[in-house]
Sequence to fold (93 residues):
Amino acid sequence: MLQMEQADLYYGASQTLRKVNLRAAIGSVTFLLRRNGVGKTSLLRAIVGQQPLREGSIHWAGKDITNWPAWQEITPWNYLRTPRTRNFSTTHS
Fold:
């Protein structure tokens, strides 16, 4: 299970995430759906190690992976980010 607890993320002095909690079970599909500018991409960047948390923790299968570097192999999990666009073709499979 992927768990994020009480996560705070900052870009400089600007707080992007405040006390975020997230749980995603292994084998499940989890969506992040919100309006623009609420921190979806920042949350994903923190999970994959591209942006460090100032407070809080991230655990994968019971292992603390908080602020691990992006190149550190955590697990063979799949991460797919599909930005919303009006020009998305329905012919893609």
